[in-house]
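Hi everyone, sorry if this is the wrong subforum. Our group has a chain we'd like a structural model of before ordering constructs, and none of us has done structure prediction before. Sequence below.
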Amino acid sequence: MQPTRRTSFHAQMTQPVRVRPLPPSAQPTVPFQPVRRPTPPTSGTPGNRRAPLPAAPRPVPARLPFRPAVKRSRRDAVLVLAIGLVALVFMSCAAVTLGLGLVYTEGILPGVSAGGIALGGLSQAEAAAALRDRWQTITLRDGSRAWSVNPADLGITLDARATAKAAYEQGRAQLATALQGILGQVDVPPVVMVDLAVAETGLRELAPQLDQPPVNAGVRLVNGQVEPTAAVSGRALDVAATLGQLQRSAALADGALDVVMQPVAPTVTDATPMLEQARQLLASPLQFRIFDPVTGDSAYWSLPPEQWGNWLAAEPDANRSTGLALSLDAQPVQDYLQAQAATVLDNSRYLKLDEAVADAQNAVAQGQTNAFARVYHHDRQHVVQPGETIISIAWDYGVPYPYIQQANGGIENVSAGQTITIPSPDNFLPFPVVPDKRIVVSISQQRTWIYENGALKWEWPVSTGINSSPTWPGIYQIISHVDNAYAANWNLWMPNFMGVYKPIPGSDFTNGFHGFPTRGGSQLLWTNSLGTRVTYGCILLSNDNVQQLYPWAEEGVVVEIQP
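Answer:
Right subforum, don't worry. Here is the predicted structure as tokens:
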């Protein structure tokens, strides 16, 4: 039997195969689908096995976008991880919230406050008590500026129980709000009632503290040269808008109310026309004369141009051709005077700063560099010594005794060791003082000296009051002029009368200077009594002397009556 000829598989694969290419029209138009190769039979004898058929050439399919399986798997993994983390955080927060809810079943959640008062961990009753105890002030806020005020002054009343309840409920209804309480601070708006009328009044009273006045254009001295300065806008409290802020539901959540301010434009934006006047002013120092009418002393405080030149500002003035006048910025002048007074004056004396600043501004507006400031005096305290009476104390201090009685509740008597108030001599100086004129009267010497510009002008004999109706020592002023005054108590007509003081508070009765009086219109009295006590409290001069004094001593001239 002839053995079957076998062809090796390798030989079959290496034999060339001719394949006729298909024409272009016969090329496949659909994606290539691979043909499954038939599996060779596994049964039968080796001789019956068929050699595998050579693979048919495969057409090249169209190129598809390359999408690495590895990157797609990595993106899916990241997405799954992110979802897992979010779920974990959510479940953790929920667990923490649930835990806090269990721990703070009766207490306010941590991080919760109301009106700027921390309430975390407190029960509602404890929170209400804390709110009542600490709700004493609120803050008015304008950016970085802040002021503490009593809420009652703005008509604000806190409902502590309702506020504590609102704080307790914070974070229990919504998880997001609860998380704020856990991770940070939650400010619950306090529950308040507002009396808008009281709030408006309170805000208007506070406005001067909150306002920032505008600064007009001015001039300054730089290295000896006068230069103009720019104007600066100010800010003023908008009361109506601030009241609207107060009514907002979130107002006072952190214990502060943001006030509303409106810009205020300066009235002078260009001071260039005032440069020449400024040059003339800044050629001299600014000098303040500080005058004490009680002692008659003066002090002089001087500022070099390099310092006060920076305080110059321009003000509208319709009476000037330029429409402007130079003035002084009030604040630096006030600061200077206050600092000087604290250094020079003792605790019993003080300056009225507004009055002194106004005088300096007026001086500069008139082209002058000499300003004036009057010294004032506080009430004094006196400890009664053994043997003293109200009358003796009043005589020593130079105050009519009814004024001491009035200042101490109408007392009739005093006892040793008792502290009483002695009224300020300013009570008897109602007019602006005339610093360069002064009249001095001596009761013990029965004479008067009249000074002008520090020099003695006249010296005359006088007559003062009898013991039962004395002329009282003290520091007074010329307060009135009457050509021929009538004293009904004594039926006297007093020529050239100049009032000096009222011996009884609130009365119309006045003691003063006058010439020889007449009674009944014809009888001339006391012509030969000068130099002795003969009057009922007034100061008697001869007719010739009083006629000289009458026009010279204007109202405001200080009269010093010595014991």
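For your construct planning: Residues 1-22, 24-51 have pLDDT under 50 and may be disordered. Residues 69-103 form the longest helix (35 residues).
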